Amino acid sequence: MSGTDETPQTEAEKLGGAGPTDTRPTGTRTSAPEPEPEAPSRTHSMLREIASGNALAGVLAVVLAIAVGSLMIALTDERVRDTASYVFARPGDFFTATWDAVWGAYTALFRGAVYNDRVDDFATQIRPLTDTLKFAGPLIAAGLGVGLAFRAGLFNIGGRGQMLLAGAAAGWVAFAFDLPMVIHLPLAILAGSLAGALWAGIAGVLKARTGAHEVIVTIMLNYVGFYLVFFMLSRQGLLQAPGSGNPKSSPAKESAILPDILGERFNLHLGFVLALVAVAYVWWLLNRATLGYRIRAVGENPSAARAAGIDVGRTYIVVMLIAGALVGLAGTNQVLGTVTSGVTVDLDAGIGFDAITVALLGRSRPLGILAAGLLFGAFKAGGFAMQASEGIPVDIVLVVQSLIVLFIAAPPLVRAIFRLPAKEAK
Amino acid sequence: MKLVLRNITKRFGSLVANDRISLEVAPGEVHCLLGENGAGKSTLMNVLYGLYQADEGEIVLDDEVQHFTGPGDAMAAGIGMVHQHFMLIPVFTVAENVMLGNESTGFAGTLDLDAARARVREISERFGFHVDPDALVEELPVGVQQRVEIIKALSRDAEVLVFDEPTAVLTPQETDELMEIMRQLKDAGKAIVFITHKLREVREVADKITVIRLGKVVGEAEPTATNAELASLMVGRPVELVVHKDEPQLGDDALVVKDLRVRDALGHVHLDGISFTIRAGEVLCVAGVQGNGQTELTEALLGLQEHVEGSITLDGKQLVGRSVRQVLDAGVGFIPEDRQEDGLVGGFSIAENLMLNRSFRSPFVRRGSLRMDALEEFAKTKLQEYDVRAPDIYTHAGKLSGGNQQKVVVARELSRDLRLLVAAQPTRGVDVGSIEFIHKQVIATRDRGVPVLVVSTELDEVVALADRIMVVYRGHVVGIVPGDTPRETLGLMMTGERPKDVVA
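Output (structure tokens, whole complex):
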């Protein structure tokens, strides 16, 4: 489904719903469909427009964000500022400096995220790419969790809390038991996903039984989760490492750590493969499974779903459980793969919120989320390199990421900038 | 003011919505624009109102060519529009709504509400509208809200008034009142454009009739033309307005409803102890002005209502207290009154919509997976069988016209093994051609021995389909009468009065 499907409604709304029966004209003799705009609630259609805008809009948003990012890089660059003071005397200096700053920044980003041409040995050359994949793993998993909830019409803002709970559970299994790897690792992953599922499930149950809005519930559960995990990490006998005074658990045992898949030289661990499996699962769920069909029906039109005998409340609960498990996978991935030295409350590393961006950019489609997750993984990996080599603050990357969301959320702005035809009533 | 539209052409991409349409409306004249949904009536009026710009052609008011770039220009030139969906702010009073967009202000920007009140009162008295300027719009009945729209237009000195499908939301009585208002406006020298697809209204009030089909003027007619003539002009082929049906082959009592009481979450009673029976092979039509408990009745039958007391049995099985899914599994087919809200998922393809209530157990499901091939084949067959006009089965349901959407719903419901069909407003907002088709399907279902409950606020439909008619008023049954009961009697019963010769 593309953005074109949404626009007739919004356009009809803009026209003040002037004649819902035949604003959509037909003039051809063929059996052309006569589109009839529906009028769902404004927030609902807006949410859907944002969550399911077309792919082009996403790409253009990225392009625009990078362009605005260039501007910021130039503005913050010292040499650019110096040359700006005599720009009329020697404009060449100014433009060279600007070009150097921007080009330098983005090539550094590329070298840090994909391929480093400044070293000789092949393994080191492609090491950045494996870093990107490593960072992308949890982003993809959590993005799927948020995106799946979107498809059911639910806004899952609780990524952070779900990741923390999942990380704590997985970390606990990882350090508290001594088991052979074939049992220990799956058990730890399962524990993490389960904890994430249950934490998100709370929001699902409250929504289904009492109508509590999932946005508020998940946001608040972030705080509850944070302080709960913090509390447990600060108490001997709960999660805190024995004899330690820091809010941190013991490190995960070797048998519960996600193995590196390309050998010792790369940081890429099995977590990325698990994320790919999750992409495949969610794709199957949404496109081929009856459960996914019901999820989409509930997301698109809950009243019609209800009239068709689908239990909307139950669907909400099931969706939140699955979504929480997927986000939980991201938390597990962090604790068992990326930072195995022990669970802390920083384990989510902002992924819980970045996941929302990833889901938006990926239009809540599994493959879109995969692509968006890879892009954001690249930003993460490259951002550090950019700061290290060019001295450009890593915050620029955050600015670019935020701008992407901003541009996605404002499709008319992007359309205006690129002079795309306004998708009015055809 | 005399309105002339000359060769108006409006294209949307390759689609020609209006193809050289010309129209003349003189002061003191009601000009009817008749056409099916999607014929291009509203596009034409949006051009006139400045919401669209015509690609070719011109709008002439009293010999002056107009160039409207927005509704503001059109209003200033003396064109007023009464939209089908009111452009009113519910929490504002009548006077506030009337002055909206045209506020007169006094010192330091204070609103001059008194002037607006006086204006409302003046217009209201002149035309006998009986509208209180200080009433909150949300508390007014729909018919009165519409009058507020008319006052709004008149308060801006509109000389040309456009009514866009004004009767779609009105009760029969309100419709009669509106007709009266139109006549008064006409006598006051206004030029009136009346857009509709309802033949009865056209003949009642029109001085001239222009019929549009597929964006073109296909003919002009006198108000004396018969319904059949008008309908065939609209549709482009002869249309049967009367449903041919044989005597019903009645079976046993199938649906038995006893003392049904439905309350909403706030405790308001919507159905207060109604009882009726439908026999196999019988159509029972529920007639009544909208909002007298019909919606609650169909929803209670489906299990969509929470607080239901009494008993509903279908072939001896109790349905009260069952989930929607259990009711559907018991063989109840449901055509909801609002198909876009309750009947279809707009963002789903036609094929996906055809399995909406069969996602648990059906030919299209195997061990938790969708059987896409089976579904596609089924959808292709049904598209043909039910004459759904769409490019293919992957077209989103939200992009279909009302009639085609309804056919998708009908196809879905009738292709299950039904023990009862509940059809609420089955032809609302549906074009004439599709109405004919859907009515035939309802009767065919009856003739297969299925009991059918039809809820309709259109007397034409009730009379066309019913073997028996149950009239409801404020949650009570006024009476259950034979299908050939005269309209006048039914109309009276719809106001809650039971004629002496009618037995409940």
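Chain A touches chain B through 49 residues (CB under 8 Å).
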